């Protein structure tokens, strides 16, 4: 009984101390490190009084008091030992991937970069990922995909020039190399990627990598930003079916800071009405106006006119593209309401919806709210999705498309032919119009090799034939020449869009076209 009483005393006292420690921390935070010392002293005195009380209660003999002290200090040692055990155990877990056992980014940061600040030895750095890794996961399963990730570590460990390799997240890796010239760095990275360029289970399936590399000069100068430099270079890799190793340059950093500046300005630009909606007319193959596509322009500070290609990509990466998409939709709806009040004959106007916007859970609800607030008939609004919108979560995107169609909106796929849509997926999508990318139209007449011209023509003719059989309208983008228009008409294209008829124009010019219609 005496022993159990002592244990209870020790537990109560330890809990008492932990409670007051927690109390002190909260008090210090809430008072901005101005907690009154006298209060702390009073708590200390009170705790000591509790000790004295328990010692007095259970330790009437000297030997008992000594025994209590032994129990107490033994409990402290055990508690300290357990804390140290869990500290080292979970510290290791914090530095390694749970399933693969590979070192992670935090290991590289704590055990290399922090030491590197003191030592300052030259090194090279690279950051890379596996292109279309999601497709490997979906087509072969997560077990095969995990093997691919593990093999990256196995191959890199055998390279004598690789000092450290860590897995950052998903299929992203970072590695540190010995001092190499830019040419050597690129060559060795490409050779390493060649050793793991296919699936062992299916050698015909090729694996491609996107890698940004930083030379020793920029690694030392960049210090804490070396990973950002590598990611900037990595982002330049856009070829879908090739392994790319891109060396970082100073111009990329300038581009990065420009992107950051642009992204910060977007909310202000929207508020100040610097973003302007243009409309490019669409025509049926006979030349009659059949619709329009809303496009964005940025009159930055009202003295610099920017086209979408100079800022949209940055806005997408920053996750703000939905602000522009809904801004364009509301601007179009506002004008349609105005035109309806003037009894102007109307045609559908399409609004581009990015793959980021359409995956927002409240997308359709928000779109309906905007359109209905201006009392716009749904059939006058067409949503254009790019083919790349289907890269991620295809089933979910198709379900959203079906929901859009149930609300009587029109739906089209933009830039068809630039991505990887399968014919099986195409038959599931409830499309009204398939927009054929400008590159197909250009290749009708301008390919250098006669064989290329023939292939381009065969592909385009079959796309047009397929849309006709599917009862879907076809629209060829970028038509600039009469010869192109005539060929498209002969092959069964139903609509065209391009400079042959009209360039993108301010809304008031498009309004004049409607009035003349």
Give me a quick take on this structure:
By secondary structure, this protein is of the alpha/beta class. It is built from 20 helices and 17 strands.
Structure description:
There is one protein chain. Helix 12 runs parallel beside helix 14 and helix 17 crosses helix 18. With 517 residues, this protein is of the alpha/beta class. An eight-stranded mixed barrel has the order 8-9-11-12-13-14-15-16, surrounded by five helices. A five-stranded mixed sheet has the order 2-3-1-6-7, with helices on both faces. The chain has a two-stranded antiparallel sheet with strand order 4-5. It has three domains: 94 residues, no CATH class; 144 residues, 2-Layer Sandwich (Alpha-Beta Plaits), CATH 3.30.70.270; 189 residues, TIM Barrel. The protein contains 20 helices and 17 strands. It starts with a helix and ends with a helix. The N terminus is likely disordered.
Entry keywords:
alpha/beta; Alpha-Beta Plaits; TIM Barrel; 3 domains; 17 strands; 55% helix; disordered N terminus
CATH superfamily of the largest domain, by name, is EAL domain
The share of residues in extended strands comes to 15-25%
What are the low-pLDDT stretches, counting only 5+ consecutive residues below 50? 1-9, 22-48, 50-61
Q: How many β-strand stretches?
A: 17
* Overall average pLDDT: 81
* CATH class category label of the largest domain: Alpha Beta
Q: Strand arrangement, largest sheet?
A: 8-9-11-12-13-14-15-16
Do you know the CATH architecture of the largest domain? Answer: Alpha-Beta Barrel
| Major sheet size, sense and barrel closure | 8 strands, mixed, barrel
The CATH topology of the largest domain is given as: TIM Barrel
Shape: globular
Number of helices: 20
The value of Rg in angstroms is 33 Å
Count of distinct structural domains: 3
Class based on secondary structure composition and strand pairing: alpha/beta
How far apart the termini lie comes to: 101 Å
Q: Helical content, roughly?
A: 40-55%
